[in-house]
Amino acid sequence: AVESVSRGVSAWLACAALPSKELQKDAPPHFLLDTTAAHAIYMRYPMRKPFNNAGLGVGLTYHIRDNFDAFGRAGVMTSFSDQYGDLAEGFTSLRLVLGVGYSARWSWGNVFLHPGLEFQYLSDFASTSNAACKFFGLESEHCATSKIERLSSHVFLGVNVSLGVNIRVARHLFLVVRTGVSAYFFPYGSGAPINFPFFSELGLGYAFE
Fold first, then answer.
1. What's phi and psi for 134, nearest 5 deg?
2. How many Å apart are CA 178 and CA 107, to the nearest integer?
3. Which of 63, 2, 75 is nearest to 32 (CA)?
């Protein structure tokens, strides 16, 4: 009888769906939405001193599979005058970055590397170091147009690479820190008078399961 019971228990254990002892990893959220405060400084510029740019950004990341993401970011920034006032007309820039990147995930958040294609639109840009142009104005007869640096195109196309971290502060809420650099190659080739913006962003995001 004991042997019969033993065989019955063994058969039941073989067919029963028991919980696995293997640790199950939490599935990463499918969408991450973030909003950030952004700062940028161009590493190539026609003025004697660099100038600051500040604005806001919004990003959306979609988890494709494993450690791969598809992402899109957009932002708007406004320029501020440089130390010598060579930036004669401040400008607004609109950015859009699209790409596919890599993320390494842990329980506290993730670190990501996101390369992408960037489109940027710059409104009127004008710089000069000429004293007459600064004193009388760019439209004055005392200011020769040859003394003013302007852009022949307001649209830029290039590549962007950003590195960042998302730190979970609640179940769905996270802190995002992102930094990166862009290089524009159209329409100026490698000779764009204003190029290689270095960006830094800080903000909050929400993870959608």
1. -70, -40
2. 19
3. 63
Greatest CA separation for the chain: 114
**Whole-model pTM?**
0.81
Give 70-106 pLDDT, tens digit per residue: 999 999 999 999 999 999 888 999 999 999 999 998 9
Q: Is pLDDT of 19 > 80? A: no
What is the bridge-based pairing of β-strands 173-186 and 149-150?
Answer: unpaired
- Integer Cα distance of 62 and 65 in angstroms: 9
Pairing of strands 109-122, 68-79: unpaired
Query: Dihedrals φ, ψ of 8, to 5°?
Result: -65, -40
Name which of 93, 189, 191, 81 is nearest 128 in CA terms.
81
Measured distance CA(22)–CA(2) in Å, rounded: 33
- What is the token pair recorded at 151? 């852009």
